[in-house]
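Example record used in the benchmark description.
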Amino acid sequence: MRLLFKQRFFSWFDSYDIYDEDGNTVFTVEGKLAWGHCLHILNAAGEHIGTVQQRVLTFLPKFELYIGEQYYGCICKEFTFFTPRFTLECSDWEVNGSFMEWDYTIDSASRGCIATITKELFHWTDTYVIDVADPRDALGALMVVLAIDAEKCSRNN
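Model output (C-alpha cells):
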C-alpha cells in the first residue's frame, strides 16, 4: 500500500492530507493548539481515529500515540550521532533514518520491513511517500511519520 503524505500550504497549525495511489483522501491530520505538537488523525469519513501528542520537557523527543482515545504507546528518539533512530515502546518496531534524514525504514524484529518512508524534494511543503507492506499497519506508519516530521520541525524552529 502506498500513501502520499502532503502538508497543507496555508494553515495556522500542522495540517496534512494523506492520499492513496489513486489520489483518494485516506486520512486527514489536523494540528491542535497545545504545548508541543498535538496532531489529530481523521479517517476519510472525518471520524477521529488517532492522536500523536508530543511530550514536553524531555531530554530527547518523545511522542505519545493514541488509537481513538486509548493510549497505545510512545515513540522515542534515540541518541545517535549520524543517522536518526526512533523506537516504539509499544511494539518491536524500530525506525532508522538516512544521514540526510530524507529516507526512513520501519523494521520489526519479528516481521521484517513494515514500511519505507521517502521525503520528496522540491515541493513547497513537506511531502513523503509511505510504502506500507501490510495495509493494517498504515495508521501506525502514519503516526511514525507524523512524529518524525514534528521532531524535525521542533528542532528547526
